[in-house]
Design goal:
The complex is a heterodimer of chains A (221) and B (294).
Chain A (H helix, E strand, L loop, with lengths): L6 H4 L3 E3 L3 H18 L5 E7 H10 L1 H9 L12 H8 L2 E6 L8 E8 L4 E10 L2 E7 L2 E5 L5 E7 L4 H11 L4 E8 L5 E8 L5 H9 L3 E7 L2
Parallel strand pairs in A: 2-3
Antiparallel strand pairs in A: 2-4, 4-5, 5-6, 6-7, 8-10, 8-11, 9-10
Helix pairs in contact in A: 2-4, 4-5
Chain B lengths: L4 H10 L4 H13 L3 H24 L11 H11 L6 H18 L3 E3 L9 H13 L3 H21 L4 H4 L1 H19 L4 H13 L17 H20 L8 H14 L16 H17 L1
Helix pairs in contact in B: 2-3, 2-7, 3-5, 3-7, 4-5, 5-6, 5-11, 6-9, 6-11, 7-9, 9-10, 9-11, 10-11, 10-12
The chains are: A alpha+beta (221), B mainly alpha (294).
Catalytic activity (chain A): L-serine = pyruvate + NH4(+)
InterPro entries (chain A): ACT-like_dom_sf, ACT_dom, ASB_dom_sf, Fe-S_L-Ser, Fe-S_L-Ser_bsu, Ser_deHydtase_bsu
Family (chain A): Belongs to the iron-sulfur dependent L-serine dehydratase family.
């Protein structure tokens, strides 16, 4: 499968400098974490690996991740002031430089919480502003960000997958790629569905009410 | 979908289209959008590039103070001197530097293919523009042509310094610019491929060794020389000089070289210029100051 499928991955994105992988990509990973978390995070632990760990300050990777957690986009002029913005919005964060060897040089692990709920994800920035989410709450993922996607946490029970696909079929939404993972038999499981079009709020509501569904997050890009 | 430069050239022949047209049609297909929608999107990117150059030529300064003002210096030199390397070439260099200085100052740029290498394509485009007087549409096509080559590199090798060194980043950017200059100057798709290959061959092995991990030293000047490499290579291809090693094989060589590069030379600020006494002193000073800021 090709990593880059659009010319706008190559000529673009329009972004705040200085680095597409270490700044724009970092904004996107931070933003994905916020969207998946589905609310305002209050605490964030940000672990940097590889090249990220060595150069995050020079590249503004730190402000970029925080900007993403605050839901700023890659071309938002407020990115350089993200730390101040975080303080105003009550987001506390700290950075940890890891020495562990990782598969990709630009890897970050983000743990966010609001005191009640928490979420942990691993993202990699593959170059030119492209990112992938490779891990979510301990589940391995292959989320490219090339297509709109929904991530659905559900109970590992029969019929859970069918209840979701039935709703998508009813609304004539085509599934491009789908992946199911679980921690153990009968425990928490995760469905990743990449689609050809975005889903609207009505479909999302229906999905939330479906059998065995715990949590839903949308990734749109 | 084309996967190699050979396939891209084959498509231009078969469908009697320019490289830019092949890229535009593929993009229309991918997003299910009209030609107009795709072109408008690229038009916005072009405007961002134009504005970054304008801003950079007025003189900007990065937060660290390491870069800024060189684009302005070159423009002043151009006003009063006949540069030894030629007006167009030095104008290209100043516009590439302008873009990267804005990038280093955390301004708005368009990544081509990355932010660290964002100067080459616009630098070449906006200098050649002065000579060839292209229409807006031709300028947009320039970006699609550059993008088509970048697309092949990104999917067969890499475009980030952390993955493949500066050869992957400024190397790709400069080669993309060379191919697009050839098309704008009326060359054939094969000549675009030759210009791309000639440029990239001369960037092979270039490491990514940013001082203090900043996208400033040597990144800004590498874009300057990458851009001049692109224009010289384009002229060579337009004159009929061919690359003995085909384009796709040069991309393959770049990939293998990048794979062999130690991580100290792939955007970790641990080797090369970053590890020189001056590079280390700059890093120590910068981090002392930025800690005082916090």
């Amino acid at each position: 499968m090709v990593k880059y499928n659009s010319v706008f991955d190559i000529i673009g994105p329009v972004m705040i400098g200085p680095s597409s992988s270490h700044t724009a990509g970092a904004v996107k990973i931070g933003r994905a974490a916020r969207h998946l978390f589905g609310g305002n995070p209050v605490f964030a632990d940000i672990h940097f690996y590889g090249s990220f760990a060595k150069t995050y300050r020079g590249h503004g990777t730190d402000v970029a991740i925080v900007a993403g957690l605050l839901d700023l986009d890659t071309d938002d002029q407020r990115i350089p002031n993200a730390f101040q913005l975080a303080e105003e919005q009550g987001l506390k964060f700290h950075f940890i430089e890891e020495n562990t060897a990782v598969n990709h040089p630009n890897t970050v692990r983000i743990k966010v919480s609001d005191g009640k709920e928490s979420l942990e994800l691993v993202g990699i920035s593959v170059g030119g502003g492209k990112v992938e989410i490779t891990e979510l709450n301990g589940f391995n993922l292959h989320l490219s960000g090339n297509h709109p996607a929904v991530l659905i946490m559900h109970n590992d029970r029969f019929g859970a997958i069918a209840s979701v696909t039935k709703i998508l079929a009813k609304h004539e939404i085509n599934i491009g790629r789908m992946e199911v993972a679980r921690k153990d038999i009968g425990k928490e499981a995760l469905m990743t569905i990449e689609m050809d079009q975005k889903i609207d709020i009505e479909v999302e509501k229906e999905l939330r009410k479906a059998k065995h569904i715990l949590k839903i997050a949308k990734i749109v890009d | 979908m084309f996967r190699t430069v050979a396939e891209l050239l084959e498509k231009t022949k078969k469908d009697n289209q320019s490289i830019a047209e092949v890229m535009i049609f593929q993009e229309m297909d991918l997003h299910d959008q009209s030609k107009e929608e795709i072109i408008n999107r690229m038009d916005k990117n072009l405007s961002v590039m134009e504005q970054a150059i304008e801003r950079g030529l007025k003189g900007v300064q990065s937060h660290s103070g390491l870069t800024g003002g060189d684009a302005l210096l070159l423009q002043k030199y151009l006003e009063t001197n006949e540069p030894l390397s030629g007006t167009l070439l030095l104008d290209a260099v100043s516009k590439a530097i302008a873009t990267n200085e804005v990038n280093a100052a955390m301004g708005i740029i368009c990544a081509t293919p990355t932010a660290g290498s964002a100067g080459c394509v616009p630098g070449a485009l906006f200098s050649v523009k002065e000579r060839l007087n292209p229409t807006r549409e031709q300028m947009i096509n320039f970006l699609f042509t550059a993008g088509a080559f970048g697309f092949v590199v990104a999917n067969n090798a890499f475009i980030s310094g952390a993955a493949g060194g500066c050869q992957a980043e400024v190397g790709s950017a400069a080669a993309m610019a060379a191919a697009a200059v050839v098309e704008m100057a009326g060359g054939t798709p094969q000549q675009s491929a030759d210009a791309f290959a000639i440029t990239l061959k001369n960037m092979l092995g270039l490491v990514c060794d940013p001082v203090a991990g900043l996208v400033e030293v040597p990144c800004v000047k590498r874009n300057a020389i990458g851009t001049s490499n692109a224009i010289v290579s384009a002229d060579m291809a337009l004159a009929g000089v061919v690359s003995k090693i085909p384009c796709d094989e040069v991309i393959g060589a770049m990939y293998r070289i990048g794979k062999q590069m130690p991580s100290s030379l792939r955007e970790t600020a641990e080797g090369g210029l970053a590890a020189t006494p001056t590079g280390k002193a700059i890093a120590a000073k910068y981090y002392r100051n930025s800690e005082e800021d916090v």
